[in-house]
Description:
The protein has helices spanning 9-17, 31-46, 135-145, 152-165, 176-185, 192-201, 205-216, 233-239, 251-254, 286-291, 309-325; strands at residues 20-25, 50-54, 83-89, 107-114, 125-128, 219-221, 226-231, 261-266, 273-279, 295-296, 300-305. By secondary structure, the chain is of the alpha/beta class. The strands form 2 sheets. A 6-stranded mixed beta sheet has the order 6-7-8-9-11-10, sandwiched between helices. A 5-stranded parallel beta sheet has the order 2-1-3-4-5. A hairpin with a 3-residue loop joins strand 10 and strand 11. Helix 2 (31-46) runs parallel beside helix 3, helix 2 packs antiparallel against helix 4 and helix 3 packs antiparallel against helix 4. The model has no long low-confidence stretch (mean pLDDT 96).
Amino acid sequence: MMMSKRNLTDIVSAIHAAKTIALVSHVSPDGDTLGSALALRGGLEQLGKTVSHFCQDPVPRNLMMLKGADLVRVPESAAGESFDLLLCVDVSDEKRMGSCVMLRQQAAVTAQIDHHGTNPMYMERNVVDAAASATGLIAHELLQALSVQLNRDIATCLYVAISTDTGNFSYSNTTEEAFSVVSGLMAYGLPLAELTRTLFRERTKAAMLLLRRALNSMTFYADDRLAVMTLSLKDFEECGALPENADAIVNFGVEIQGVEMALLAKETAAGPIKMSLRAMAPRTVNDIASAFGGGGHAQASGCSVEGTLQQAAELVAQAMVEALNK
């Protein structure tokens, strides 16, 4: 067993005391929030807990292969239910809970595990480690602290959590701990080739058509140090694409030689324009996202901005230009 890196005592005691536990993943769920929560679900059920897993938005197609993904519920389905413990997983602030925020009133105790530096410690019990490559690492340590016996399903969920938030172990946030934990997970027979294709290489036709639209929209600012892309609702509709198909598109911006920051602005049916910001170290974008009510990691953040697609994109782009020119 690895030496403990985090103080998990309060959350471990809350879990031991609870019979019914509600896990929450953040809006527009990704591999870390889902992989971590589903790993915890498997472990908590092993301990005899009654576990429900909630998320405002659907599980992306490429993550449906995780055990328990088909059991994720919308919070509205929990009307009239109560829980001994509400545990948010990789949810950086209350807004990222989306409609799951209603579940707070149905829980006796609230807690969270997370790795976002902008997290405001919004629960009663908080374990937030910004130095962790992924919340999956905290989930792994929590399962160890609970003496859960890992199996292939739990190991796969943890691998997905860690690998997706490190860009398949290529981002600057990748740590020795990430490699060490994944090395241990390999003992459970992870299907690496299959997982790598599903998570990082395979795209639907609709996703490829959407990528083409985004690349065609690309404009450059600040002497080509900032790349900006936009996607309208019409783009999604004409490509037959889902919101999840745009998740990794912003990364293409920072893959261009000389580009230090990238922005993808996406029109949503709900109204606000969703912004995905990326930066190459030592540049940071979490401070820019925070200025617009968002947050995230130093080199990968997001926010939502009111206005038309072009107006909102221009507003955030100008803030990024200002940061580049400092």
